[in-house]
Amino acid sequence: MNLTTFEDEKNKKEKPLGSQSLFRGLQLIEILGNFPNGCPLAHLAELAEMNKSTVHRLLQGLHASGYVTPAPSPGSYRLTTKLISIGQKALSSLNIIHVAAPHLEQLNLITGETVNFSTREDDHVLLIYKLEPTTGMMRTRAYIGQHMPMYCSAMGKIFMAYEKSEFAVDYWQNHADEIQTFTRNTITELPKMREELEDIRRLTLAMDREENELGVSCVAAPIFDIHQKVKYSVSVSLPTAKLKHVGSKALIEAVQDIARRISQEIGFVS
After folding, report:
1. Residue 21: which CATH number?
2. What is the pTM of this model?
3. 39 three-state secondary structure
């Protein structure tokens, strides 16, 4: 027995019984995911690099299990909605902190600054995770469980920007008695806020330019779910003087990259 034959036999013994068919079936599911209207069997076999008889046999098994169905075009197959149901169950079981924490810790190490992670609760930002800076002495006043206004925080403006177009108007009307000037940079006029939200959507990024606390700036990015809705936001807070000294480019790229990674983990497809 030569070395190649020996290795092949060894691999066969190490693989679980039936694993090859399982892996090939999953491969076909992944390929069919790119063909919502169906893919011809011959083309599917070509893409999967399998012979047509093997592909046909696997498709019959997937069809019997309810994952694949014949498409309107003769000889073609497409996925069923059963996979959507399974995907939704998987997403509902995700613990968002468990998913996001490794990425947030990485952002904390890359920037050395305060990292914040929030969700939205009614018309407020709810801080659900925070990491203190690894360099410097500055500590922000924010704490886990804190409710923050939307209009004067970077994460809050993220949530406002990705709401329906009339949300800002309704927010201004419903919270007129709460909107106040914390610093000279706080946005308290609706027309200016609408311009700000337009920029946020265009850049996929929000800034808090000392709008809530003098000496503290913040960069935030949206986290999208499988439905392309913004359910969470991540931000980095740091002294304004330090931001001016080091520049914002690298910080913005780091925040946006981490936001993209978390979005992908909870099902978002760009």
Report:
1. 1.10.10.10
2. 0.68
3. strand
